[in-house]
Amino acid sequence: MQPLNAREQSRLLHPHWEDSDNLLSLLQHNAKHYPNQVAMRERDHGIWQEYTWQDYLEQVLGFAAGLEQQGVQQGDIVLILGDNRPALYFAMLGAITLCAIPSPAYPDTTPEELSGQMQRESIRFAVAEDQEQVDKLLHVVKLQGDQQIIQKIIYDDRRGLDQQAHPLTIAFDTVVQAGQQRLHNQPELRADLLARPSIHDAAALLHSSGTTGTPKGIPLKHGHILYGVRNAANAGYFTEGEVHMAYLPIAWVGDFIFSIGAALALRFVVNIPERNETSQHDLREIAPTLYFCSPRAWSNMLTRIQVGIDESPPFKQKIYHHFMNFALHLERQRLAGKSPSLGQKLWYGVGAQLIYNPIKDRLGLSRVQRPYTAGEAIGEEVFLFFRALGLNLRQFYGQTENCALAAAQSADEVKLHAVGRPFPGVEIKINEDGEILMRGDNVFDGYYNKPEDTAETLRDGWMHTGDAGYFEDDGQLVVLGRVSEVVYTAQKERFIPTYIENRLQFSHYIKDACILGKDRDYLNVIICIDFQAVGHWATEHSVPYSSYAELSQHPKVYQMIQEQIQKVNQLLPEPLHIRRFVNLHKEFDPNDGEVTRTRKLRRNVIDQTYAAIIETIYDNKDHIDFEAPIVYETGETGVLKRTLRIQSID
Questions:
Q1: Count of CB atoms within 10 A of residue 579's CB?
Q2: Strand locations in 146-213, DSSP E?
Q3: DSSP 330-394
Q4: What angle do CA 274, 279, 280 make, to 5 degrees?
Q5: DSSP track, 47-88
Q6: For helices 314-335 and 295-310, angle between their N-to-C axes, nearest 10 degrees
Q7: CA distance 568 to 617
Q8: pLDDT digits (tens, 9 = 90+) for 255-271
Q9: Half-sphere exposure of 413 (CA within 13 A, CB side)
Q10: Of 1, 325, 395, 618, which has the highest C-beta tally within 10 A?
Q11: Pairing mode, if any, of strands 169-171 and 217-221?
Q12: What pairing do the DSSP bridges indicate for beta strands 637-648 and 623-631?
């Protein structure tokens, strides 16, 4: 008896899935019924370039036909590398058309990390944004030497590349033109390409964060993505025709789900800013109806507002603080279940004209109807602020393994500490160990070439998320943190480091925090200050500095950070109070291996790199002369020397 192929195995797992229901069939449907409707816009040199649904389909089919000509076959994994660009989205759909699998990587991934990914996934073809990424891939070729497997690098931005032709490189436009010529010469090819994909095929190979080792490949099938999107739409979290800004990293599950999955299923207008650095400026012109970003991004937005207010004339500051304090009070009342009085509604209307609406317009959020946040806990101050402005900000909960769409807060049931209810079509339960288990059509079928990890995660028909949590009496889910991160002090006090770290990072002065205390008598913490926020604070408080390292070690900064820690201590039981802390002289850096590309801590690396600092903190010393190895963007290494203060909490 012949073994089942991947599609046949998937049909056994998902017998109700229809083969013809896939991302490409949705693109074809949109091009047929809405050919002249704008599907994607990109700001290029200050001018918005538009692609209709018909343009979108022609680019995808042209690239697919040209890509096949280059040698890409069914099952091949195609690396996608760069910032958000129409060509990279077209390339992913083109690969999907051939039943190949796009595997996006973060644009700041190092050559060494790329080399490992390409070896693990046997990647022969790559699509890169520009010269910087092409040079990185050519460096990978040198690293691999005789083990080189890459056959072709396709690039989008021609600047600096057309004049320096390399045997491995070819322009994206050239591939598309060759594919379109092939479609012209072979009239039957178009229908053949459109018929190839199935709902049972993998549509993307995304990756886990890799906090404890090498990131795991997570294949998401067309069905997982579409059922995840439709579950959310059925619950009212997405609607047809949303205006969306694609600025999040293409390697992150949220971008693939929003900018490709939901965009195709619900005909979003996807807007791409000129550069990441201009995204906040471009946001005002885009004026999205749907806006999704991480708690860190919402916090940075609030910091910019506060900096602007602090630089305003005293009269404007007085009006701002009056109306914002009023709105915050009103929002706390709403969350407590109390309705505003008629007088409060009228006064809020005055504040909307003077303060709230101008701020939303300034941020580019004036048309947003569905603002969301996910990825980690959001600070109470940040959450309340944007809701007080009149934005119905809500939290999502999910992982890459479930398409990031598992649960969310409804518009009229928002709690600060909960993440809401499961979506329709998603089942969630808590096992006897307090772990969150999940199942549904949005849940993946297993890791790429990792049968042992798959067996560990998918057991008894349920996905074991690795998160600890519980349901409240009203059915809302509360997420506490990773089960694997539940640790104990030497006094057997149980705690989850990420829970405390998130609350420290609610302060916009703290960018990262690493809680220490496993098997120790008490908790201490390593702090990385937020350079922008603390720099502005320093200017306001006449604190001189010339560098991050100098600012981090200033006594007044230490006192200010101590006050932030004391606020968190008030929320913790006394045995878990933080006793001592150190301000690190540099930020945790993905290139140094201290955090992942999504800024999740790699604790084993931090424990090893800063072992001397950790021991000094627990030895009750007040300073340490420390040398930290660093890796520059060029790949060169160096050493950063500094005397670090260590301070006890009163």
A1: 18
A2: 152-155, 169-171, 202-207
A3: HHHHHHTTPPPPHHHHHHHHHHIIIIIHHHHHHHT-TT-SEEEE-SS---HHHHHHHHHTT---E
A4: 145
A5: EEEEEEHHHHHHHHHHHHHHHHHHT--TT-EEEEESSS-HHH
A6: 150
A7: 19
A8: 999 999 999 999 999 99
A9: 14
A10: 395
A11: unpaired
A12: antiparallel
Distance (Å, whole) CA 297 – CA 511:
11
How many helices and strands, by DSSP H and E, does the chain display? 24, 28
| pTM for the full predicted model | 0.85
Tens of pLDDT, residues 66-120: 999 999 999 999 999 999 999 999 999 999 999 999 999 999 998 989 999 999 9
Q: For Cα atoms 479, 481, 482, give the angle at the middle one, nearest 5 degrees.
A: 125
Choosing among 3.40.50.150, 3.40.50.12780, 3.40.50.360, 2.40.30.100, the CATH entry for 6-209+238-284 is 3.40.50.12780
The bridge status of strand 637-648 relative to strand 578-583 is antiparallel
CA 563 to chain centre: 30
Which residue shows structure tokens 């749907």? 290
CATH number for the domain whose boundaries are 496-648 = 3.30.300.30
Question: Count of CB atoms within 10 A of residue 214's CB?
Answer: 13
Minimal CA–CA distance to 205: which of 60, 76, 67? 76
Two structure tokens written together for 51: 């692609």
